[in-house]
Amino acid sequence: MGKKILIVDDEKNIVDILKFNLKKEGFSTIEAYDGEQAVELALSENPDLILLDVMLPKMDGFTVCRKLRQSITTPILMLTAKEEEVDKVLGLELGADDYITKPFSQRELMARIKANIRRTAMEEVAATRATSIIQAKDLVIDCDRYEVKRDGKVIELTLREFELVKFLAMHPGQIFTRENLLEKVWGYEYYGDVRTVDVTVRRVREKLERDPSNCEYILTKRGVGYYFEKLEE
To answer: Are 35 and 56 in contact (CB under 8 A)?
Structure first.
């Protein structure tokens, strides 16, 4: 049985097309046609990835995303027919891993689905390895337990946020462009929307930094990209 995808969309013709293409690629699918059903199935069926439309009856996609992020870390790829930047950013702020705007090519959608599932599989393999600890000042990153602590207190991060922190901390002082990070952290083998990186960095800083306007850990090289402060010897 292939990886299980939860498709959430109130337009049956879109669901049918997605089901057909996903099954061709070896995935199994379950479907929800409104937000309430989406939450129920996501929690009971434990899918490997959720394709979540924004415009839904009973409960919109943003609310669904926020509710799910309270209890699960399953990758969420939001589908939206809107072009407004604020809607895309809001989805990322609420914990979605990425978004794709309708109409989209099936090839691009499949690439993003596979990248997210591949990333999750790599994380599961890594979890079986010996504990690896990265320490930077009063920040402790436990790569085995997917946990970040500052001053001994756990900082709640989504899986994608944790992967971003871990990757940058593993390469202290090295500057990465947004495109680099899309490839290395999101696993995309093509250049996606770099806004995804900016929003995720901002969200991480709000959780990680004592003063997000005066960062200690994740720094910006203006006009280039982001880097983690060099670790103390």
So the answer is: yes
E strands present in the chain? 4-8, 28-32, 49-53, 76-80, 98-101, 133-136, 139-142, 147-150, 153-155, 218-221, 225-228
* Strands annotated E in 33-90: 49-53, 76-80
Q: Quick one: CA torsion of 20, 183, 198, 85, rounded to 10 degrees?
A: -30
* CA–CA dist 180, 125 (Å, integer): 23
DSSP three-state, residue 111:
helix
Contact 139, 149 (CB under 8 A): yes
pTM of the model: 0.66
Domains of the chain: 4-126 (3.40.50.2300), 133-228 (1.10.10.10)
Query: What average pLDDT values come out for the chain (233 residues) when binned by 10 residues?
Result: 89 93 93 96 94 93 92 88 67 82 84 81 54 81 86 87 90 90 77 79 91 90 90 54
Residue with tokens 């952290």: 185
Q: What is the DSSP letter of 58?
A: S
